[in-house]
Design goal:
Blueprint: E1 5-8, E2 21-26, E3 31-35, H1 42-54, E4 58-63, H2 69-72, H3 75-81, E5 86-89, H4 93-96, E6 103-105, E7 111-112, E8 128-132, E9 141-145, E10 150-154, H5 173-185, E11 190-193, H6 202-225, H7 231-238, H8 247-263, E12 268-270, E13 273-275
Parallel strand pairs: 3-4, 4-5, 5-6, 10-11
Antiparallel strand pairs: 1-2, 2-3, 7-8, 8-9, 9-10, 12-13
Length: about 280
């Protein structure tokens, strides 16, 4: 039976909330797969070891949703502790070299075996399908389990919060919206995100995300029409009262909306001064 085990990465912070979620898929055949690598915190590593021993499995594979540090930087520590483990993700070469492991390249549509097996050793299809879902980052991927319609969604969605589109580091809002639409079209039953709780009503969350982005776009356009011409000014007009620690993320989201408007021929950037 396919029962991913949530293991918290123990890295709380302003941008990570309580910290990252990683997920262990432990199979009766002695193999296990970990979704996302965390950051190498000792309590996280100890909990992985405890779960592996409890299920009499070894860590054979680590699948990383994308190359941001809170998801990938724990890979070298895991590699040192689990010599048999392989590490795989959709390529982002300039980021991947930061982490001293050998990355196996994933591509959209790849089918990856998790090593899981059914009750009493009965064979089940426990493979995951790689869905390239760029936008939050250029390499972002969702891992899709078709039999249970479960998606490991990385940073695509976070229940109760929004996702930063880091446009200055490869983020792209148009791609992100397309990724949300792609996931919605699969009619998932369960989302297992890298931050926050599991999602049991994916349709409501994803459609809410799409409407939220449409609302933000209207706000950005209104700010431009009101004469706010810089990313900073637009962000301050929209996110008035936001905690200072989160303003950098707010500016990135504003920039992502502006870049989308520019790509659509609806806004112009002249030396950092934006106009419709």
């Amino acid at each position: 039976m396919f029962k991913p085990i949530l293991i918290e990465a123990r890295n709380p912070g302003p941008m990570t909330g309580r910290g990252n979620n990683t997920y262990l898929v432990a199979g009766a055949n002695g193999a296990a797969t970990l979704i996302d690598a965390g950051v190498g915190e000792p309590p996280h590593l100890a909990e992985i070891d405890r779960r592996l021993k409890a299920h009499r499995t070894r860590l054979d594979r680590v699948l990383v949703t994308h190359g941001h540090a809170d998801h990938a930087s724990g890979a070298p520590v895991l590699a040192s502790a689990h010599a048999h483990a392989t590490f795989a993700k959709y390529p982002w070469p300039e980021e991947d070299v930061r982490y001293q492991v050998v990355w196996q390249a994933l591509a959209d549509g790849d089918v990856v075996a998790t090593g899981a097996a059914g009750a009493a050793g009965a064979a089940e299809d426990e493979s995951l399908i790689v869905l390239h879902t760029p936008g939050h980052s250029p390499d972002h991927a969702v891992f899709w389990h078709e039999p249970t319609r479960t998606a490991f969604t990385g940073d695509l969605v976070v229940a109760g919060s929004s996702v930063m589109i880091h446009s200055s580091r490869g983020g792209n809002l148009a791609d992100y919206l397309a990724a949300l639409e792609r996931l919605l079209a699969l009619a998932p039953r369960t989302l297992l995100p890298a931050h926050g709780p599991r999602v049991d009503d994916p349709k409501a969350l994803i459609t809410g995300y799409l409407e939220h982005r449409r609302m933000r776009e209207r706000q950005v356009i209104a700010a431009l029409q009101a004469g706010h011409a810089s990313v900073q000014a637009i962000a301050e007009s929209i996110y008035d009262g936001l905690a200072p620690a989160l303003m950098a993320a707010a500016r990135e989201n504003v920039r992502a909306h502006l870049e989308k408007l520019r790509a659509e021929g609806r806004a112009i950037d002249e030396a950092g001064r934006w106009t419709m």
